[in-house]
Amino acid sequence: MKDKLILITGATDGIGRSTAARLAEKGYKLLIHGRNSEKLKSTKEEIINKTNNSNIDTINIDLSSLEDVGLKAKEIKEKYPEIYCLINNAGTFQKEKNLTKEGYEFTFTINHLAPFLLTNILLDNLKKGSPSRIINVSSIAHRNGKINFDNLNAEESFTPYGTYALSKLANILFTNELAKRVKDFNIIANSLHPGVIDTKLLRTGFNVSGASIEEGSENSVYLASSNEVKDITGKYFVKLTPASIDSKWNDPKLLKDFWEKSEEMVRSYL
User: Fold this and answer.
1) In whole angstroms, what is the distance from residue 171 CA to residue 206 CA?
2) Closest of 242, 256, 268 to residue 181, by C-alpha
3) Full strand arrangement of the beta sheet holding 85-88
4) Beta strand pairing call for 85-88 and 56-60
5) Could you give the angle at the alpha carbon of 262 between the alpha carbons of 252 and 6, nearest 5°?
């Protein structure tokens, strides 16, 4: 495992931090992402002390800035030629409409556009590291998501939960189309619902608590490391099992159109 690199976004808190520690314990080489250098340093030290795995690097990226995502992704592309697994774990819930410096709505940017951009820039590395895996952390909230191509950027309306649900549905649409595009390169792509977990996002966004962080990381660890899923792709996992989604979210035209719209939104940073 020591030569297999796993990149985990949002690895300094909650589910991402637990995922990183558990995968380090299994002996993987890790590249952990955060947006706070001190938290990255302390997370790295904690994982090394806990697991005795010192094969851990860090990367600071502001996922709300597509420019920063593009620049840092290209640095990763050069420094780490082969990537075994990319876990797009980072997420946010914004109670008010905020725009990034590039003019995109904050929640949609961090939860969808940033991982879409990061993944596309690193596809060559994942091909070289194949058989490889891409994991997108979605949510059961996707069930309440609605696709309106005229409102992806909250141009017409914004509600905190509606925008969050859209971003989580976007994770699934992205995953389903991605799975088809990378299948011939021996790459699998799956999404997941981590459960209703006691994270900072849940407490600040919904003012409720949930199950343990460790339980929340189970799906990510399973999809990253288990041989049981090595031939499964384009699925949405709940409790370590592929779960059904509304059939309309597998419509080929919708998936293609949504991919092309996402690509259009990030094109300047690819």
Assistant:
1) 20
2) 256
3) 56-60, 29-34, 5-8, 85-88, 132-137, 187-193, 236-238, 241-243
4) unpaired
5) 95
Catalytic residues: 164
Q: Which two tokens stand for residue 12?
A: 């300094």
CATH number for the domain whose boundaries are 5-269: 3.40.50.720
pLDDT at 195: 81
Question: Using an 8 Å Cβ cutoff, are 243 and 236 in contact?
Answer: yes
The DSSP-derived string for 142-177 is: GGG----TTSTTSSS---HHHHHHHHHHHHHHHHHH
pTM listed for this prediction: 0.94
Report how far residue 152's alpha carbon sits from residue 175's, in angstroms, rounded to the nearest whole number. Answer: 17
Q: Show the tokens assigned to 132.
A: 């490889």
**Location of structure tokens 């962080």:** 213
Burial class (CB in 10 A: 0-12, 13-18, 19+), 97: middle
What's the pLDDT at 204?
55
The full set of domain ranges for the chain reads 5-269
Pick left, alpha or beta for residue 27 (phi over 0 → left; psi -120 to 50 → alpha; otherwise beta): left
Q: Which amino acid is at 135?
A: I
> No. of H helices and E strands in the chain?
11, 8
Low-confidence ranges of the chain (pLDDT < 50): 197, 203, 206, 208
Q: Which residue shows structure tokens 């509606």?
A: 162
Read off the tokens for 101: 């410096």
Residue 31 Cα distances to 12, 62, 104, 138, 170, angstroms: 12, 15, 27, 21, 25
